[in-house]
Amino acid sequence: MPFPLSVEQKQTAFWVAVWAAFFLLLVTLGPVLTPFLAAAILAYALNPGVDFLDHLRVGRLKVRVPRPLAVLVVVVLFFAAIAALVLIVVPVLQKEIPMLQAQIPAFLAKANDLLGPKLQEMGVKVRLDSDGIKKLVSQQMATSGDEIWSAVLNSARVGGTAVLGWIATLVLIPVVLFYLLLDWHPMLARIAGCVPRRWIGATMDMANEVDTLLAQYLRGQLLVMFVLAVYYSVALAIAGFDVALPVGIITGLLVFIPYLGFGLGLVLALISAVLQFSDWSGVVAVAVIYGAGQVIEGFFLTPRLVGERIGLNPLAVIFALLAFGQLFGFVGVLLALPASAVLMVAFKHLRRHYLSSSFYNA
């Protein structure tokens, strides 16, 4: 005979079911939530700047900046910085891409001289020059033209929808960011007010731990990104690379994704070295610059600016990015860092309770 549930147990089961349904709804609405989550992450990072302007002091005089004006200033400065970055990188790429395109035939000629005889020995008769590649592409298009055309049409349909979605997201993010920053502290108070009173103390302690962890990680990582972007840009420019600025900036800005940013920058630099230099000097310069960059990042910048005490291991960040991206798509990638910080704090508390439990000590 089942035991009857008490009133408290029934209420607990009801509210657990309500919150489970709420989170299931959020997962279902994942694509719609993308601009809101992106704006929430940006608001978390930019809110200290708004608070600084909101409580600005000039000497002993306290200058009270209205919060709407402080939010507007911070948002405008943030997007102005992004626009400045784009204006720096895009003209350089517009100048360098034709140069790279002009050097592609010479690169193909080198590849044909190196790989052509080996391919012929294997029975593959293909010339790796411009004429040979054009002939190969034309043959493939002649044999499978219908499939290529249908694939292009399908890609255009999907791509058009994706472009419209990205435009809507880019338009929504500044608007949502402004209102989130404007209502940041009352919104956090309302969220805290939804937590059951018996759990409010432990919940606020964990929230403060997560906030400290994320704040230290994000601020330190931003400094690491800035220093490495300057280092790679200057070092590649000294070595004589024509694409030093965009490649250096890309390598530095993507370093927050462990190994992926470094790997992408290394590949771009190696391609530039092969196309620009006639000997192995460019490849050697890339190896020295990027090897020294890894040493500087791993042994000086990350321990000093980010700090090992934070505990966000690069492998844990990689796993979080892959896992949350697989589960929730792009929204999961946005949530990977804060979710990994929350899980790390939760696991720390769970481990402490486990080590003090009778199950472990018996």
From TrEMBL:
The chain crosses the membrane at residues 12-30, 68-90, 163-182, 222-241, 247-271, 283-302, 314-347. GO terms for biological process: transmembrane transport. InterPro entries: AI-2E-like. One of its GO terms (cellular component) is membrane. It is a multi-pass membrane protein. It is found in: Membrane. Keywords: Membrane, Transmembrane, Transmembrane helix. Its main location: membrane. Belongs to the autoinducer-2 exporter (AI-2E) (TC 2.A.86) family. This is AI-2E family transporter. It comes from Rugamonas rivuli.
